[in-house]
UniProtKB/TrEMBL annotation:
Protein name: VOC family protein
Domain of life: Bacteria
Domain VOC, residue spans: 6-125
Stored InterPro entries: Glyas_Bleomycin-R_OHBP_Dase (IPR029068), Glyas_Fos-R_dOase_dom (IPR004360), VOC_core (IPR037523)
Organism annotation: Aquibacillus rhizosphaerae
A Pfam short name: Glyoxalase
Length: 132
């Protein structure tokens, strides 16, 4: 998947561990560890830790400035993630769309919302030089 010896780590709140595990496993993430207060996932090659923190849930999440996700380098992987999210009836925060149409930074994107209202963006740039 990635050609580096580093793994990005992100810690986010969750309100309930079982529903969190269900969501992220449906997304295709592998449960790495589970404790009484947190779960750790292999999130597309990176580490996401969901800490039990029901009093720290954003009741009205917005896409900006806080979200995280995956930028696919292969269009077929983006399409597969979208197909999987749809088939598994994961909750969309923003339906699939094209941003910056006709510009070099044009990309396909969709946003999911997890059970703790964390927003996840999945995208694919037609011009791979725009990934970073």
């Amino acid at each position: 998947m990635r050609q580096t010896n580093k793994v990005f780590h992100l810690a986010i709140p969750c309100k309930e561990l079982d529903e969190t595990v269900d969501f992220y496993e449906k997304l295709g993430c592998k449960l790495a560890r589970r404790y009484d207060d947190r779960v750790t996932f292999d999130f597309f090659g990176d580490q996401v830790v969901c800490h039990l923190s029901p009093t720290n849930i954003d009741d009205k999440p917005k896409m900006y400035p806080r979200h995280f996700g995956v930028t696919f380098l292969e269009k077929k992987e983006y399409n597969q993630a979208l197909a999987d999210a749809t088939a598994k009836e994961l909750s969309f925060f923003k339906e699939p769309m094209v941003r910056f149409e006709g510009k070099q930074e044009e990309h396909m994107t969709f946003f999911l919302i997890d059970p703790a209202n964390n927003l996840l963006e999945f995208k694919y740039y037609h011009d791979s030089s725009m990934v970073y």
